[in-house]
Amino acid sequence: MKRIGLLCLFIFAGYILSAQEDIGWRYDRTGVYKETGLLKSWPADGPELLWHFDGLGQGFSSVSISSDKLYITGMTDDIGFLYVLDTQGKLLNKKEYGKEWHTSYVGSRGTVIPDEGRLYVVSGTGKLICFNESDLKILWQKSMYDDFGGEVPKYGVNESPLIVGDKLIFTPGGKEYNVVALNKKTGDLIWSSKAMGDISSYCCPIYIKDQQIPQVVTLTGHHAVGIDISNGNLLWSFPFTNRFFEHPNTPVYGEGTILCTSSYGVGSVMLRLTEGGKNVEQVWNSVNLDSRTGHMLKIGNYAYGAGDYGKGSWYCVDWKTGEAQYKDRSIATGAVIAAEGMLYCYSEKGDMALVRAIPEKFDLISKFRITLGTEQHWAHPVIYKGVLYVRHGDTLMAYKIK
User: Fold this and answer.
1) CA 237 to CA 224: how far, in whole Å?
2) 10 Å Cβ neighbour count for 90?
3) Strand order of the sheet with strand 313-318?
4) Which residues of 27-44 are buried (b: 16+ CB within 10 A; e: fewer)?
5) For 59-189, where are the alpha helices, taking DSSP H only?
6) Is 259 helix (H, G, I), strand (E, B) or coil?
7) Which has the minimum average pLDDT: 3-17, 117-131, 295-309?
8) Mean pLDDT of the chain
9) What whole-number distance in Å separates Cα of residue 151 and Cα of residue 157?
10) Does position 47 have pLDDT exceeding 50, yes or no?
11) What pLDDT band is residue 265 in, cutting at 50, 70 and 90?
12) Quick check: 319 and 301 in contact, CB under 8 A?
């Protein structure tokens, strides 16, 4: 009996570990990875390059991971493809999914979302596709425009859908079907929210569950909105806009407050949830903290990210007050993730930097150049089992950082 009990315990522990392996958009949308034992500095020419895979085509989507398989999208000759690689860089499968965005800043955008044996992809042309993870068979698909009356944003759709329980949530941006929840297994509509009727704005929604009313929070063309996840009712809205109606940065949540960040003059605003999540109030705002696409993240009592669009500074600000602790221009701004008290800053100029996450200064420890790949350095890095995955256009690289 004791042996059977131990065997059951090991099986259960193994199940828990496998259940925790999925890596989606910015890990769990926070950008803060839970890896440990990582290098605290790198050699002058960077950490060891384990492998690189060339031939992804054009795109900016990041890696997602499930069951030790890497998923990423790319565009070749205007057609989008879903690629499956193993952790050694071997191509396991490849699946065409239709037209990709080829009008301006061409290529694939949204990161693949794995969930319970399925993969979800939103193309730049607004098609939402559900694949069977094992063989990439398409199980169902929807059009944000044909099915929900959405409007095509200027630079195509860039959203990784949010999955909570049986619901898949994304933002067509239509007047009637502004934000919708679909049954993740069938694609059937569960609820639709008119929200404020704004166009979608390249934002990936987040889920806030520690309020009296659990809710979805996202940014649309003119507003930050909170939506009751149980029925799609609009709980609150807050004016948040710029001249292009573009808000690509995922909101950051912590301690009952929501940091919304954008560019083109709007900067950042901190909102506090009130009345159990039924409303919000402004805590502070900063026009200088105006990251375009690199996102912000929260570590302790501070937020880290980029600002001063056009000048390019890295910022640390006090989470509660918005007061700048430092601004630094050691490297060009870009995307930021974090793990084990370190920032991984991938600049738009191709520098990958390792920076201590402290409020006193931009403590740059190591950096190296990303020389492989093509076009813009826009994809967000990913950390998984001691490996740093960096996508630069046509090429995916794997660096040993443990």
Assistant:
1) 6
2) 11
3) 296-299, 302-307, 313-318, 324-328
4) bebbbbbebeebbeebee
5) none
6) strand
7) 3-17
8) 94
9) 10
10) yes
11) confident
12) yes
Residue 351 in tokens: 């520098």
Share of the chain above pLDDT 90, in %: 89
In the structure encoding, which two tokens stand for residue 400, read together?
Answer: 């040993």
What sections of 288-348 are H helices per DSSP?
Answer: none
Question: Are 173 and 197 contacting, i.e. CB atoms less than 8 angstroms apart?
Answer: no
Per-residue tokens: 52: 């690189």
pLDDT in tens, 352-384: 999 999 999 999 999 999 999 999 999 999 999
Task: Please report, rounded to a whole number, the percentage of residues in the chain having pLDDT higher than 70.
Answer: 95
Residue 13 in this model has a pLDDT that exceeds 70: no
Please say whether the beta carbons of 268 and 282 come within 8 A: no
Provide the residue ranges of all domains of the chain, joining segments of one domain with +: 33-59+294-377+379-402
Q: CB under 8 Å to 36, separation ≥6 — which residues?
A: 340
Closest by Cα among 109, 238, 216 to 170: 216
Q: How far apart are CA 264 and CA 272, in angstroms?
A: 23
CA gap 182, 188 in Å, rounded:
5
Structure tokens belonging to residue 140: 């169902």
CA distance 114 to 130: 10
295-326 in b/e form (b: 16+ CB < 10 A) is bbbbbeebbbbbbbbeebbbbbbebeebebbb
Fold held by 33-59+294-377+379-402 = Methylamine Dehydrogenase; Chain H (2.130.10)
Does the pLDDT value for residue 7 go beyond 50? no
Q: How far apart are CA 110 and CA 161, in angstroms?
A: 9
Give 13-22 contacts, CB < 8 A, sequence gap 24+: 18/67, 21/65, 21/66, 21/67, 21/68, 22/64, 22/65, 22/66, 22/114, 22/115
Which residues, other chains included, contact 1 with Cβ-Cβ below 8 Å and sequence gap of 6+? none
Cβ–Cβ contacts within 10 Å for residue 149, how many? Answer: 15
Residue 10 reports pLDDT greater than 80? no
